[in-house]
Design brief:
The chain is of the alpha/beta class. The protein has 10 helices and 10 strands. Helix content is 39%, strand content 19%. Bound molecules: S-adenosylmethionine.
Amino acid sequence: MKFTSQIIQYVRYYLRGETIYRIHSPIGFSLIESIFRRPGNSKFSDLESMRQELLISKEEIANIDLGAGKSKRNSATVRVERLAKTSISNISQCQQLYNLCQWQDPRTVLELGTSLGFSSSYLQLAQPNARLLTIEGNPHLADRAESMHRKIFKDHLPEIYRGDFSEVLPQLLPTIDNLDLVFIDGNHTFEATSHYLESIKPVLSVKSMLILHDIYWSTEMTKAWEFAKQMGSNKMTIDLFHMGIVLFHPDIYKTEHLTIVPYWMKPWKIGLFARSVH
Ligand SMILES: C[S@@+](CC[C@H](N)C(=O)[O-])C[C@H]1O[C@@H](n2cnc3c(N)ncnc32)[C@H](O)[C@@H]1O
């Protein structure tokens, strides 16, 4: 999506956006409150010092792109500093993933797109006993992620699967009974993303959460987000601009589509001044 289209999408998101104080549903309130919570930074200090090292690393690794950029004329190698700057979740996005994972309390988590291993580390830190499966098509990135996981986690590590999502998923999904949390962060095309969503659907738990990253990165991803919003019956969807969440929960009886901005972005919509949405 062109930069100007992204700005237009952002303005639309902002104008539609509600703050937490307009949310009446207890599940919605509790989930949204948890997203914007600031978890103490001490548990992420090792990870974040590794990020600082990668942000200045001139090391080059093979640039194997199985995703939306594969048809573009990419160079054979890419600098680690560039990947760390441009293609992984930043600290605030990682902390939101951590919060979402703690709220969801999953036993099994699936991530598409490991890259350097940051989002998978945050998800695993949030739920140290959960089984976390993450797939990465670039084996050099998978190796780097694995060695970082070994430094962060003593025993229970995320499981990294190497290969194209479309080849690994059909082998992996039959081994999983119930998926409680899915984070899709790779191959940002409508066709691929909708296909992954369809394949994952049969193994989702009754209480499950889908998180789609970069839902306004391209018109195709916005279409994929609309597709995800139509999946299943009673659910709550939350548009946070940089990511979209679909929550299936046995206590949700009516579908609700919410667009949420942090309360400081609309300070007149806080506390006493706000009317809750029923
Ligand atoms: C945006 S990055 C993931 C960032 C990571 N989730 C984080 O926030 O730390 C997307 C990753 O997905 C991988 N990828 C893209 N398309 C893929 C495909 N079809 N199969 C396997 N991996 C793919 C890329 O190699 C890239 O490392």
